[in-house]
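2 proteins. here.
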Amino acid sequence: TLRTDAPLHYAAPTPAASGRVNHFFAPRGIDDLAAALQRQPQATLLAGATDIGLWLNKQLRDLGDIVYLGEVASMQAIEVSGDTLHIGAAAPLEDAWAAIAAHWPSLREVGLRFAGPPVRHAGTLGGNIANGSPIGDGAPVLMALDATLLLRQGERLRTLRLDEFYLDYMKNRLEPAEFVQAIQVPLSLPGAGAGAQVRAYKISKRYDCDISALCAAFALTLDAGRVAQVRLAFGGMAAVVKRAAQTEAAMLGQLWNQATLDAAIAALGNDFSPITDLRASADYRRQVAGGLLKRFWLETRADAPLAAPAVSVWATS
């Protein structure tokens, strides 16, 4: 029965008139959400519909059962607890990224290049992560920051590091009826001090409102000029977003100088074998990935690092 004093999404579950959606559920609390998914483990989770909406109106796909997250307030909460930023999986991307950039201002610019404002206000960071696109812009940054996912299945909670979440193209470690409840982002790098540096770079055909050909995020901690901790994550270079493990190994413990940079760029070829598609060729991706590492070095080297205004489109516009 439809309540006449409430928006349409308050309607009781009922077959959709179009036939493309079987049933629509809008749980009001996190426990109800977990229970709904246990009853309908094949249901599609819907938040901002910035991706799922295209499945329907562009691909003409049948969506089956839909579980809507918009009525679960705790899934939209953003809060700091101790040294960790907790972001509900259904928090709007605009709000979630603002919270991240408030602590890491160097990440503000890449956040402004997530699609356009309407999409950033409707879409969610959790959806961006759970979707698993290898060219999603959220995963490289969160992976570089050593984020973990809080996963729920029924009454069971578990945590999983984001860099262990993706298995293959559009495949992840979620079990049946399990969902991403929140994203947990550490607010300091391991051993972080004055030498902590975080950067993220997006390469696309258009500067604004475009899909990435390549997205990279780097987190570096220096100790007496040597690389004490490093996390390098790339999107667009493989079937999943992933860290450059061999490149990190080439840098760890070394002086952060030209020689280490050259070794790191050479090691990238052992970490990735990118493909050619409509967005970029494999050769272009390899070349740009190395170029982004060089840019990171230019911005973070001990001698004459480039100042932030010198490398920001927004600072000069």
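next one coming up
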Amino acid sequence: MYMDQLKNIGKYFILGINLVVLILLIISAYSDRVSSEKSVFFSYMGMIFPFIFIACLTLTVIWLAFRQWKYALILAVGIIVCWGAASTYFPVHVKTKELPQDCIKLLTYNVMKFEHEKAHKKNNPNRILQYIIDSKADVVCLQEYAFIESGERLKDQDIKNALKGYRYSRTLKLSNGYGNEFFGLAIYSKFPILSFKEIPFESHYNGSFIAELDIKGKRTTLINNHLESNKLSLDERTEYYDLTKEFDSDKLEVVTSRVTKRLTPAFKIRAKQADIVSKYIKENENPYIIVCGDFNDTPISYSRHQIKGDLKDAFVSTGSGLGISYNRHRFLFRIDYIFHSKNIKAYNCSVDNSIKNSDHYPVSTYLEFK
């Protein structure tokens, strides 16, 4: 009798674990539907989605191995329900070998002030500028675009001279950095820029602009974004990095507290910014639209979900893997995106981790206008 009771308790305990994992999986997978202004709990759940999904997969395999079909079935249902979120986080596609001849290449890149305005010289080129030149992209959208007005470091004319292959360019000044430094966003294009204006929202160092381009006769709206940064200090990033290298339970609470104090207000600010950008997208009257940039948020986040709306994500539809685009302090997330309207077809969207001169990797894709 006593043993039967223990078995029943054990069964209910295991069932409870399965149900908790299932509920957490569903909450995290659909957390991007809830604005961070209403609840940041869902924002954090979106961040940990891949870990919950892996836990669910692992438990499913274990129950299948032990032929515990009902437990495996419970979790399998959750995996199916959340498959859209999983494929958003980790798509798998084969590269297209032969691209249509009329494709254009688009590059979005947070250039981290061009390595803090490192000069570009023939015998000692600025690696980031040289990468942009070598990419042969037709349209280049840049975040953390910066130069100085005078001195030995990179100046506006230096950038324009280096990128002379781009006949059209516009810059959006967001703030003054230290001294005579210019800081903002930019677009360099081989196609005419018909109009250009800022999307106004409150932020000192972050912003968005909306431009109209004539791309081979196709009137196209392009929105370049740099949404609110998480503002983690170097010390806080270092503490987090050290914790990932060598786990220390005593430091965990301190690091978690410091990081969440930065992340929580940033989540809320980005939610407001995303709502504003989304409004501009919905009001767009041009037949074609491209939205890109540094969102500072993960694939399962309100800001990404709100801005994407009915657009297609080039990496989700043509890329492969996690597509991690931030490369410092083991914050292993994809936070840079390229979206486009459904009458544009993307090919071979990729994150290039071969260049580490910025804290972001460049993201590029080929686009065919239908």
